[in-house]
Amino acid sequence: MASLADQLQQLSSALEAALQRDKDEQSVRKHHADCVGAMRAAQKAALSGASDKKAIGQLTNEHIRRAEGIYEAALKRLADEAAARELERSVDVTLPGRARRLGHLHPITLARREIEAIFAQIGFTVAVGPQVETDFHNFEALAMPKDHPARDMQDTFYVDGSPDVVLRTHTSPVQIRTMLAQKPPVRVIVPGTVYRRDDDATHSPMFNQVEGLCVDEGVTFADLKGVLLHFARRFFGDKIGVRLRPSFFPFTEPSAEIDFTCVFCGGKGCRTCKQTGWIEIGGSGMVDPEVFRHVGYDSEKYTGFAFGWGIDRMAMLKYGIDNIPLFFEGDVRFARQFR
């Protein structure tokens, strides 16, 4: 019995000394658990062959209760020390809070989403397609002959080892894929990334374009101008006008260049519009019957118009950006200017 009492006393004293040194709750809990486990082991050894088992149990429980008290006191000491440290901290409550910075959509994304929303108002849906295209979809089906300048290596990116595979030079191939996949009526816009071998302050070898296509019975050139006018006034404001100038594109006949009233001078004439009051936007025209032949449409029954322009250019005009590489440099300070 005396030997057990000595063991339990030593364990209690060792626990008290250890907990006074401990600086964290995890260490306190470990030492306490180890001590109680050792006391129970000593009790079990003492009970073997003992006659006064009740006294051994009472003695052991007394020391375990003492260990519990030491343990609770150590936890309280740690809590008090932590609270004291918090009170000692100096906090200037007049300092402004640290607001989280929110991300911003890229201006090209803003322009693209607005363009899509405007055309959705008049029944156009968005169509998408691959950026690596075949010669058929990118050139042949669009009535571009083999000697057309756009097919030159100087203007188009060709895939090594595949002379009939290119990085699409416009989103028109998606129009071909759409017409091959469905019968009229067709009313789609095709936004996306395109590639051309061109690189300067106002051009990029990779840029974003949107094209539109409408095919149905009785579609006229007047419908084309009405759609363009709707878009121009929704995107730039009610005072914007549309001018169509005769031009040539292999896949439309007749064809026209699209001009909008200069957004900077309101048509009065300025350096940007070269004193004309108009800014060239893109190209348009009535779909050539040769294109309909490639997709299996009856050109005697159906007519249609197509148009297209650069989304990057639209963003430059809308937000007053004069250097196209800014779009692709990834400078967050640039993107923060647009909401």
Question: What attributes does this structure have?
Answer:
339 residues; alpha+beta; BirA Bifunctional Protein, domain 2; 7-stranded mixed beta sheet; 3-stranded antiparallel beta sheet; elongated
Written account of the structure:
By secondary structure, the protein is an alpha+beta fold. It folds into two domains: 87 residues, no CATH class; 229 residues, Bira Bifunctional Protein, Domain 2 (BirA Bifunctional Protein, domain 2), CATH 3.30.930. It has a seven-stranded mixed sheet, sandwiched between helices. It has a three-stranded antiparallel sheet with strand order 2-4-3. The longest helix has 36 residues. It is elongated, with a radius of gyration of 40 Å. The termini are far apart. The mean pLDDT is 87.
CATH architecture verdict of the largest domain: 2-Layer Sandwich
Give the overall shape, derived from the CA principal axes.
elongated
Low-confidence segments, given as residue ranges, are none
Number of strands: 10
What's the CATH topology name of the largest domain?
BirA Bifunctional Protein, domain 2
Strand order, biggest sheet? 1-5-6-10-9-8-7
* SSE order: HHHHEEHEEHEEHEEEHEHH
Q: How many helices does DSSP assign?
A: 10
For the sheet with most strands, the description reads:
7 strands, mixed
Strand content: 15-25%
Over the alpha carbons, how many angstroms does the gyration radius reach? 40 Å
Termini, distance in Å?
83 Å
Relative helix content: 40-55%
Instruction: Say which CATH homologous superfamily of the largest domain is assigned.
Output: Bira Bifunctional Protein, Domain 2
Total domain count: 2
Give the structural class.
alpha+beta
Q: CATH first level of the largest domain: which class?
A: Alpha Beta
Give the averaged pLDDT, no decimals.
87
